[in-house]
Amino acid sequence: MYSIENFKVTIDGTDIHAMITSMSVYESIHGNIKATLIVNDQLNFFDLFFNGVNNNMLQLEYTYFDVPVNIMFLVDGISNQKITKQGKTYHIDCVSVNTYNQQTGRICSAHSGTSSDVLAQIWSNVHTEKNILAIDSITISTGKYIVPNLTATTAIKNIVNSAYCEKETPMFLYQRLIDSGVTRFTSIDSMINNYFLEDFEIRNAEATREGLETPLTTIGTTSSFTLTHWNTAFISKAAGGMWGKEVRSVSLDETTDVVTPAAEVTAIPITKMGLSKNLYSEKCLLSAETSTQSEILKNGKYRLFNVQLKATNVIAIPGIGCGMAIHVSQGEGQTSGTKTDGRYVMADINHVFVVDDGQMNYTQDIGLVRE
Q: How far is CA 290 from CA 156, 253, 272, 276, in A?
């Protein structure tokens, strides 16, 4: 493994990087980034600087193979504190600044346009200019959204759950460590086709001293792959319509009964009750929540996680982030290879940093998914 350089951690302007013994930063396509830092405090920093009623800002900075990272967090509490003869040890739990803004901000307004337009409008009401929203995929879901005094977290979740792109694949809203705080709104179709590097792969290889002297041959290698799910609970998934259903749509105010044939391999019936068209002068942006489209969006997200592979203790890859596609090669045993090699989407990454002999070594645990 390799170590990071120019490592710095500041809390409200005070550098505490020398007190950090390890830390982990977790990112996922399901939401905002978060972090935990383990501290060996021999200077009574805890009593002097942490105040329960104040929001302490934590800034993390480092470079890894000349790729810089600089991101802000909010301290969300202290846990696992233990008193020792030399001082105390504890965990500093941190959340994204976005998490704080969205949980404390409330929305009571009306918005129109595509899902990405409405999201951008609400985003600007809750966040500052420093909290950047990047729209990676064009959305074609449109309508009006009247937000009845909801928290920004709930309002934004409603938009994301009903949004879909030009290829009619569902959307995710998330952060990456490498983006230094930028939030991305991305479709599954964009993720699948967004390769980190076309010819790069996470592969099975033992770390050796000779290999560590040639980083280009060892970055992205690991000897630990675990297939955690492959078509798990197939019967329940099929019954739930993950691969399609024969849908009977009933319009209550028009006395119509429309049967939509199963789109894929199953023919399990389901009846949906549609809202009256007279409720809105303009189509409701969230109308997919009571239509066949909502089932398609929900199942599209479920299907992405049908195969789940975990690569742990990976020699850290500079520049990668969740929501990117990458090739995986798990190697071959004496009797067989595996059909679970190939292209995956990186659904989550746990960035693990551990001090060893004065150096902050860096590895990654990568969650990989595909249909």
A: 18, 15, 7, 11
Angle (CA) 96 9 212, round 5°: 100
How far apart (Å, rounded) are the C-alpha atoms in residues 167 and 187? Answer: 9
Would you give the end-to-end CA distance of the chain in angstroms? Answer: 31
Q: Is 326 exposed, middle or buried (0-12, 13-18, 19+ CB in 10 A)?
A: buried
Burial status of residue 105 (CB atoms within 10 A of its CB: 0-12, 13-18, 19 or more): middle
pLDDT surpasses 70 at 249: no
Cβ contacts of 9 within 8 Å, gap of 6 or more: 15, 16, 17, 20, 37, 58, 59, 60, 61
Instruction: Identify the DSSP state of 220.
Output: T
Please give the Cα distance from 119 to 44 (Å, whole number): 44
Q: Are 314 and 196 contacting, i.e. CB atoms less than 8 angstroms apart?
A: no
In the numeric block, the tokens 């990989």 are attached to: 368
Is a pLDDT exceeding 60 seen at residue 289?
no
Phi/psi of residue 284, each to 5°?
Answer: -70, 135
Task: Write down the pLDDT at residue 207.
Answer: 65
- In contact, 314 and 202? CB cutoff 8 Å: yes
Lookup: tokens for 206: 């033992």
Encode pLDDT of 87-142 as tens digits.
Answer: 899 999 999 999 999 999 999 989 999 999 999 999 999 998 889 999 999 999 99
- The closest of 221, 223, 204 to 212, measured between CA atoms, is 221
Q: Between residues 241 and 203, which one has the greater pLDDT?
A: 203
Question: How many C-beta atoms surround the C-beta of residue 295 within 10 A?
Answer: 18
This prediction has a pTM of 0.84
Structure tokens that stand for 363 in this block? 């590895």
Q: How many CA atoms within 13 Å lie on the side-chain side of 161?
A: 15
